[in-house]
Amino acid sequence: MSDIIRLLPDSVANQIAAGEVIQRPASVIKELVENSIDAGATSITIILKDAGRTLIQVIDNGCGMSDTDARLAFERHATSKIRKADDLFSLSTMGFRGEALASIAAIAQVDLRTMLKGESIGTRLIINGSKVESQEPEACAPGSNLMVKNLFFNVPARRKFLKKDSVELSNIMREFERLALVNIGVDFTLISNDVTLHSLRRASFKQRITDLFGKSLQKQIIPLDTDTSIVRINGFIGLPENARKRNQLQYLMVNGRNMRHPYFHKAIMQCYERLITPDVQPNYFINLTVDPETIDVNIHPTKSEIKFENEQAIWQILTAAVRESLGRFNAAPAIDFDVEDAPEIPVFSPDSAADHDVELDDDYNPFAPPTRATRQSSLSAVPDFGDGDDFAPSMNFSRPSERFQDWEKLYDDFVRKRDDGYASMVESKVNMPEIELQMESEAPANATLQLKNSYILTSSRDGLMIIDQHRAHKRILYDSYLEKVREKSMVCQNTMFPEVLELSPAQNAVLTDIASSLEELGFAIAPLGDNSWSITGVPSILNGVNPRDTLLGMIECVTETGEDLASSLHERIALSMAGSSAIRRGQVLSSAEMDKLISDLFRLPTPARTPDGKVIFTIVSLDDIAGMLG
Predict the structure, then answer these.
(1) Are 148 and 101 in contact (CB under 8 A)?
(2) Which is more confidently placed, 434 or 552?
(3) Residue 13: what pLDDT?
(4) Which phi-psi region, left, alpha or beta, contains residue 330 (left: φ > 0; alpha: ψ -120 to 50)?
(5) Alpha carbon of 186 to those of 70, 175, 371: distances in Å?
(6) How many CB atoms lie within 10 A of CB 507?
(7) Distance (Å, rounded) from C-alpha 625 to C-alpha 258?
(8) How far apart are CA 143 and CA 491, in angstroms?
(9) What is the rounded average pLDDT of the residues 295-314?
(10) Going edge to edge, which strands form the sheet with 532-539?
(11) What DSSP string describes 325-337?
(12) Measured between alpha carbons, how far is residue 164 from residues 299, 571, 611 in Å?
């Protein structure tokens, strides 16, 4: 048998590597911006065409490159960041593998203009699918200007898997936000199709957060700062009352590098356990500073997962820091007492003298029955309002009843009434089992019963069927609403008061793209500027549904899944309406209502599960019942 193992050509090896490093346009921006930051840039401009498909251009004022370095930078594993393997444990740069530029050049057309600071002439390099087409001297500004054109032009299968421009732009915006958060000393500008989406100037960490996500966030976060020999933790965490059901802003950074760390995320969530409901999550922006020798950043192709040497110790420090910050700023819910018209209670002072001196006899007993003498003295203490009988009727000095002066007699009356109550209750229960048995014997064989006002019990051919009434009604309404939505027989109903929807720039870009489709479905929305929208009308069948939550859910669905807007939007609207309109657990149903619910459910083609996959009913078989009864 002939030899079958052979070396791959560099161009093929680079394309394979690009599959790990460059997954979408956002990946290109991440790699190029990190290179600019490593080059010492203080100003970075990103220019996009068609969400990066046609053009990604990154311009920086970094140190620039010589003509030799510019050519060598696009070779695989060529880097200026490390020289030996041990340097991985003392990294102070974002990049270090030397794969990014080679991978980008393998699947795109690259045009680089760069010049070293202090030089009078730079160089221009053009690469087409890993093949160097030309390199010539050219006058340019100090720094680098790199254009990536026609991404995946020579890998049509990869280009086909790119999602819609709105989805890709949303991913670019999220990557941009992560880069801008960890590099607050750099000016950033983001331009898409000649529209400036972001123009950020150097600022404090809190100012950068508000510049990216809106001024409203400024009052929703509290500072976090602690310093130990193992780790320094600083940043901001969100107040519990501002936790979000979706689109929460959660960022973890270490040594100026973004990371995903489920273990530390769980530590933060644990601190909010009793402060927020399980269906919401808080915002947080936390930066960890540790010795570079105690972390390993070379365990994931995108360097987003990082291994810590002192993971458990950092968990404890992080937990203590978050809890201390929440406690220091009284983030726990407090009871707000109404103090209006409340009496003023003086502060006790042990040195102040009492206003009234009261002398009591040694044998004074407040529980002793009043004597004739004490009653006479109390009456004599009443002021004299003058002679005559005119005032007498209004003075009501009732004497204590003789019946209540004898405490033992009063207690005997209480015991007697209690015993009589017990006896009457026992007598009333004597005939209850007979009544219940009589009712059961008169009940029809196919009766439907409601358990705890939440579940419907009915007989089936195989045993006892238990139906969740809320889920069953949700399934019925979903199918009904979905049919109406797809027929586009929806009418826009104007709201009494317009609602304002505030979005992040990434969400705003998606909503701008789908606005026309939303109008066809019955929404009336209009941009207000500064990433805000006014909701003035909603589909008439959205009765009782929060339009803000519905729109946010649609934006999230389009962003994360990249589904076709028509189908995903129809299903999401139907699901939102069904979930909010379905009967709730705890709602009492009549026999006729239960029978109709069961009948409507089993007329559906898929009655077993809700649209989101939850079980609607279960059956306890006759064999199981017999087994439980022995």
Answers:
(1) no
(2) 552
(3) 64
(4) left
(5) 23, 15, 90
(6) 23
(7) 56
(8) 56
(9) 78
(10) 492-502, 532-539, 524-529
(11) HHHHTT-S-----
(12) 31, 19, 26
* Average model confidence (pLDDT) across the chain: 78
Write down the pTM of the prediction. Answer: 0.62
Q: How far is the C-alpha of 80 from the C-alpha of 375, rounded, in Å?
A: 103
Tokens of 84: 């030996």
Residue 23, Cβ density class (10 Å: 0-12 exposed, 13-18 middle, ≥19 buried)? middle
Give the per-residue pLDDT at 382. Answer: 45
Does the pLDDT value for residue 113 go beyond 60?
yes
Q: Backbone phi, then psi, for 200, in 5-degree steps?
A: -105, 135
The stretch 30-36 carries a mean pLDDT of 92
pLDDT band per the 50, 70, 90 thresholds, residue 587:
confident
Distance separating alpha carbons of residues 410 and 400, to the nearest angstrom? 13
Task: State phi, psi for 500 to the nearest 5 degrees.
Answer: -100, 130
Q: How far is CA 55 from the centre of its chain?
A: 33
Question: Taking Cα atoms as reference points, which of 101, 98, 82 lies closest to residue 27?
Answer: 101
Radius of gyration of the chain (CA): 37
* Cβ contacts of 565 within 8 Å, gap of 6 or more: 514, 517, 558
* Torsion sign (Cα): 280, 283, 284, 285: positive
Closest CA to 528 of 508, 548, 552: 508
**Contact, 239 vs 248, CB < 8 A?**
no
Strands (E), 80-227: 109-115, 122-128, 131-138, 143-149, 187-192, 195-200, 221-227
* DSSP string for residues in 380-438: HTSPP--SSSSSGGG---PPPPGGGT-HHHHHHHHHHHHHHHHHHHHHHHTTHHHHHHH
Beta bridge partners of 286: 235, 252
Q: What does the block give as tokens for 451?
A: 């358990």
The whole-number pLDDT of residue 17 equals 54
